[in-house]
Amino acid sequence: MNLPAARRPRIDRGTALVGLAAVTRVTAGALLGTSLAVHVGRTGSALEVSLLATAFSLGIILFAPVWGAFADVTGRRKLILVATGLGATLALTPLIAVDAVAAAASAVLPVTVDPVWIQVLVRGLYAVFIAGFGPLMLTVASERGGPGGRGKSVGSYNAFTAAGSGAGQFTSGLLLGALVPGDVYVVVAAVSLSATVAVALVDPGDATPDPDAESLPREIRSRLLPAAGERGHLSTNGLGWLYLGLSARQATVSGVGALMPVYIVATLGLPEAWMGAVLAFNPVSQTALMYYLGGVVDERGRKPMITLGMAGSAVFGLVAAAAVFAPGGLAAAGVVALGYVTLAVAFSAMWTGSVAFVGDVAPENRESELMGLASTARSVGGVVGPLGVGAVATVAGYPTAFAAASVLALAAAAVVSLRVAESRPAVPGAGTGAGVPADD
Fold this sequence. Notes:
Blueprint: H1 13-41, H2 46-74, H3 77-91, H4 98-108, H5 115-130, H6 133-178, H7 181-200, H8 216-224, H9 239-267, H10 272-279, H11 281-300, H12 302-322, H13 329-361, H14 367-396, H15 398-419
Helix pairs in contact: 1-2, 1-6, 1-7, 1-9, 2-5, 2-6, 2-8, 2-9, 2-14, 3-5, 3-7, 4-5, 6-10, 6-11, 6-13, 6-14, 9-10, 9-12, 9-14, 9-15, 10-13, 11-13, 12-13, 12-15, 13-14, 14-15
């Protein structure tokens, strides 16, 4: 049945390109992270696997706010997105022949270089370059939605990223069983390059450059390290407390998530192809949930969804710990899959609400900067969580470490509930379809 032209669902070119860039960029990242965890976990310890996640989070911590501030000051969003995309692709080249690179480094340096350290270094360098992608694209999505449709627009963008994460994790399980490590990373580099091509075609709505920024380095430094009297924007509606909650919650999820590929394969005894399918339950579920919950965030408010999402993240750690007691491989896979569906609901609510909150309270020409700080806040937990959970798992085992990590997410929910004030603007029709549309 053909719908009248005026009522046909429409996805304009801009939305399609943003979606393609998001899907391919996140697919490359998921392929890389999962493949590296399995490759290192085959011969290394839980702590060495955790170092991969720590290196990635350090790159995000240091550079997400830098790229965001740089974009706000110069207005050059597209240039930053393309340049960092090319840098991320080039950073992957040592993985194609990691043993040879380690041998060459050992011949030059006075110590023997373990290939694991090359893999950790590449993971961190990759993060340095892709750190700008999330904050800048979230800013684009936030601006497209406007005050009344911000949650739905951000949720739509997050649905694209969830689809990419699911594709990457599912595909990694297939590639790990079919290809040697070097060939896996050739595929990752090809997907990363396709993401750069896609983002070059996106119109990110470059911001107006700041005319007061006489010295670019000085202006960026003042934004990242504001003086005592210039930090008021960080206390608006409890924004700083939200950042703290994001860090604590991420420590739980990153700590557990960094070890899950090895836990699934080595401890639960599931095949690698099953691992990829189980890991994909989280992003595949997010693909539908992100868009739906974006509308709920617009209608019901930011704070309730953020608090609910942080509390739900604690449940994920407890369910993952319980999987070891399941009778048989299929039952264990089902328990882990249930945990990932729970995490999908929790993260979709929390992150969509958090991004909308930042968009609500951000001063003019500082939105990308504060989006970057949100990514940095999460990445602080991404550094602490894997190290802490990896250390506990090495001594006490995976289930104990996963259960202990859940306490941090519960603490995060309490902080947000007590210290963060609702930011949803009073816009007529918000969440009802009468707000500003997300599409151009």
